[in-house]
Queue: 3 jobs
Job 1
Amino acid sequence: MSPQSRSRRLLAVALAACLGLALTPATAQAGCPRPPSAESAAPPPPAIHEHGVLWRVDRPGVAASHLFGTIHLDDAEVLTLPEPVRAVFTDSRALVIEVILDAAAQAHYGQAAFSQPDAAVAAVLDAPVYARYVGLAGRYGLAADVAGRLQPWAALNLLARPPGRGQPVLDEYLTREAQRLGIPILGLETMPELLAALAGLPAADQLALLRDTVCDYDAIMAQVPLLRRLYLERDLGGLWRLSLAPVADRDVQQRFLQRLLFGRNAVMLERMLPALAAGGAFVAVGALHLPGSAGLLERLRGRGFRITPVW
């Protein structure tokens, strides 16, 4: 596999971990962390904005914009936009997405994913878990030597969703449609910023999350149909509760969420404000960025916008 095609394959899952697929209890296998006790309490559900993936965002004197929650799966039904969503999207003045996945982003991701040999998965993951990891990476088209040279955060991203089936994920589909329709595309973050959030997790946390994901990969993948159904039913509360189930180390989970979800919400809010002020923006971000007191919907309401569910 050429470096360029390998980079594209890795980049295709660059945002998957933000959906929380990796945050699932680990099973008790050799070399794996202990699963949480039965007494572990699930995190509380979001108290607000639990239903709906498309929201009208407006305030007096400005043309309405819309906030759309996506899911990082390459599923045919997910890619079939419901009529209310398609109507708003095709009439929008700009598409605003998390990160523009252009050639420069591909190159940066590919370089960063293999940047530190002494911190690569082969050097830091214990043998029983590493052997299982290499086998799983093969399902994504990576040879053992390539998989072993990945940084832990990149390996985690690789395994955070099912192997691709040759279709774009929803965010990529929206980008291609915007290009086809001549709709300008804006990014809320750069690839270096996103990777700073991922690689900036403490090394021990990256390793713990990767072990969890490798050890319980089959159970994680078994949840994908439920995740898909909850998304198609527009059940943000259900997505939240499924994605944030208790894990072996809750402190690691909380640091992950703070860095990859809540902290990025604050940045995304500030950067979408100019597009919202111009009006007619279609803002598409992962669905878990929407609900809850620290979610984008409530943050927008706190800035004086009216938030109305559309779909």
Job 2
Amino acid sequence: MYALTRWFSVLLPALLLCACAGLLPAPTPMRSMQWSSAETTAKAPATCLVVFLPGLGDNAQDFERNGFVAEVERQELSVDMVAADATLGYYARGSFAQRLATDVIGPARARGYRQVWLVGMSMGGLGTVYYARAHTADITGIFALAPYLGKRGLIDEITEAGGLSRWHAPAKAQTLTKKNYQRELWRWLQAVTRGEERGPAIYLGYGSSDKLARANRLLAAELPDGHTFVNDGAHDWPTWSALLRQFLSSSALARDCRAAPPGPVLETAPTDERAITSPGSPAPGTATRG
């Protein structure tokens, strides 16, 4: 697993800067898969939306294959889910944020969700930060699982400065490019954690054996108590599944997106044999899967 993470940390930045970006697939519109939780009915639509972003080499289907969808469904949350097929080609072409907004999150928000949360791992963890910076007003919170946060040289620089809070960040970049996006994302994270800029609730999860843990610890040091989840795992789906379980049981999403308990059943006895009772309520609707 160390070898896999090392390969990822070298390959991803190389591909993002590669002139071969045009050869990587990035279909328009961006495809996605949708699921509705068991708590969602026609009369009680979900109050929250969770958007999954895949890691390098994964796709939208992997969230169902690896139990993420089932885990959310077990939590009795008032949540709908959509997994975006946000593969490497979108990042390499610079179209990730635009396509995710236009093809996935925009249409979903039109259904009236009160909260929108992003959950992504590895490259998708990077995507949660990248998108939240660009569309701060639209995102309630993010859960970045083992996010890729930049090259070793930049991580060394922030570490040697004494951490993110002491790092001398560059001026705000108005436009993200392949050359400046890593520094700009760290600048934005610094500004948000200091309260100098608006931002969503930021949650972080990673395995202590993950090679990306060193960079993740720099961010964890600036987050509020209860916003970081760490276990003994590495850079893999079992680790992320366990971290997701923790997040879904003790986070703002868990608190604010909890399904309302069913109302009490009122029974009235007739006053005499001639009393007429009103018909019972109709049976609740059945949840549907997208």
Job 3
Amino acid sequence: MLKNMKTIHTAAACVLSGVGAMCAGAPAIGQTVALSDNFDSGLSAVIAPGAAARTGVQGFAGLGPAGNQFGGQFLRSPTGNTVTVTLTDLPPHTGLSVLFLFAAIDSLDGTGASPPLGDFLSVSLDGALIFRESFANATANQVQSYVPPPGVQLARRIDLGFSGPGSYYTDSAYDLSADPVFHNRPHTASTAVVTFLIEGPGIQSLEDESWAMDNLRLVLEGTTPACGPADVGRQGGAHGADGLLDNNDFIVFIDLFFSQSPLADRGATGGVPGSDGAWDNNDFIVFIDQFFTGC
């Protein structure tokens, strides 16, 4: 569970001068992780869970792409309960991405044309709705309004534990961090409030239906890093920026590389900055260039 902010990518190259690092043209622009919580070792203080609680992922374990899979525990909520994340003292930025794995658990009823009528996942940023779609698990003929883009759906109407197997109690899983609707939402304020809720006339008790999230990340877009994108390591090789470029950054980058973390996928063919979905020598070339650019 990571609670500090760290810069993970830049879009402008910097060069060294006699008085330190200078950027050519615009300042280095990047992404800063404002919150990252996998719920395995506790709950971040910025999350107000309401009636939600950390729960073992059961059959959801291992679902998801490399580096972003369900595992350990996730935050499970009854329908009708709001989970609220409040961020403060944010650095200057131009957008916010809301990234998470979503578990649709047991007999969620979709849009519904008859009782129980409907279950809708609603996600809001500072009170403005950014996502509202229904999810259906109970029967094959229910209407689900959410049509996942390629790569988002991980499992659909199968038994992944909880109140199943059998009857209406099947489950579905989605990597909503891969849905562009959650990427780079316009945002510039120094605070942010993100809420998650399944609402609608069809909400029922936890034993009948519920939902969960895992690997929640809130990422600030368009930030100016204090020490460049190579500042990923802290004292003792802990993950996170510390305003220094030293051996800790190399230690952490290697850890990120071998875990196939998106944070290490920073080099494309020929050592050009940019992610390409591969973890290879190009990533090391770009990281070393970024490291010697300096603060």
